Structures are given as structure tokens and as C-alpha cells.
Amino acid sequence: MTYVVFGMYCREDKEGLFFIVNSRKKVDLWPRVVEHCHPDTTVICTDSAKSYVGVEKQFNEEAQHKKVNHSKGEYVQKTDKKNHINSIENQNRILKATILSRKSKKLITQYMALYYYRRTRLQNFDFGKQISLLIEDIRKVYPGPGLTGLTLKHLDDPTPSSTGIEHLMPKQRKRKSSTNKKSSKKSKPVKEVAPPVEGPMTPVEGQMLTIEEELAIINFGQDEWDSIEAFQ
């Protein structure tokens, strides 16, 4: 089974967010882009995936959408050195290397939480300080008998089925009917998709990336990667 993780990364403050989503389609990605990327974003860099076509229209009139074509071996545009998605690809690589088991969404979410904790809480300290912080945080989560410890905060992150986000959804294009054409291809069985899992990587309430963001997709199970970055 393939699990899709959608990530956002800010080039300016080097902060990132990750979400497990239903699919790589616009209806699953765009609401999160608008919800967590700064409205004043002016440049968005992505690969050439169709899911990102028109995403710049979700921001101000000056927003630009720049793309690199990985299928043609293009990772940094020669005429524009800022047009790349290497920063988020690096974060994807590090995150993916920490996930030792991909048997369930619950396990992936736990590994994501561990990665995020190490990166945001422990990374900038020496080993002794890291141990002290870890013990301190364990005490906050497990304060003792009869006491309530800290818990992870789960937010109702926007999904295609959420109400009140119609303005965040991409416009649906009408497709021409092909009823007159005969096809010899056998129809593929419908694949059920589990609802998105919002785990420990869900950002705190009100958290938003700043002007320069990057977004990425990780397909666990198939080892496929797509990414998008944004900056001013």
C-alpha cells in the first residue's frame, strides 16, 4: 500500500510541516497550501506535476509559479538559480531515511513525530543537553499518578470533505464525453482510499509558514517523490 505524505518547507526560516493525505490530487493538496503558506508568497517552485498547475492563483496577483522538469534531468534552472526544489528534497530524504517501517499510517506518523521532535527540539544542542531536554519532556508527558500530562494537539486540517473551504478548492474542469468511442481496455478496479491521518506532525493552531515556502510529496511504498517550494 502507498502512503502519501505532503510536506511544506520554508526557505527563509527553515521550518517545515508534513501531512498524510489521501492523494496527490489538487483537491487534497491545495487547501493545505492555502491554509499554511503565507498569503504574500510571490514565487512558488515545483516540479512539473500537473497537481501544481495554477497554484500561484491562490495567492496575490504578483505570485509566480516556476517549475523544474526532473524527468529531463533538470534540478536547478540554468537561467534562474533560485528555481529549484533541492531544499525540500533534502528534507524528504532525511525524513524518509528515519522511517524504518511503513506497515501502517500509525507507524509512519510516529516516525514523522520523532523526526520533527529531533529537528525542532534537540538538533541544536550537544548530547548532554539533548538528554536533559528529553527527560524534561518525558516528565511533562508523564507527570505522575493522578496528574494530566501534555498531549499532542490534533487540528481539523482542511480536506476536500470539510465545510467552508469551497474558496480554497481548485476549479473543476469539464471533460468531453467519450461515449461514442469504443475502447478495448478493461476497466481497472476501484481502489479504496483511507481517510487522511492527521498525526503529531499537524502544526499548532495558527501556525503558518512565512514568505518563502516549499511543499513536497512522498509516496511511501513506491519511493516516488514530488516537491514544491515557494519564496519571495
From TrEMBL:
Origin superkingdom: Eukaryota
One Pfam entry name: DDE_Tnp_IS1595
Family matches, as InterPro entries: IS1016-like_transposase, Tnp_ISXO2-like
Compositionally biased tracts (Basic residues): 170-188
Domain ISXO2-like transposase, chain residue ranges per copy: 4-118
Region of interest called Disordered, as start-end residue ranges on this chain: 152-204
Protein name as catalogued: ISXO2-like transposase domain-containing protein
Organism: Oedothorax gibbosus
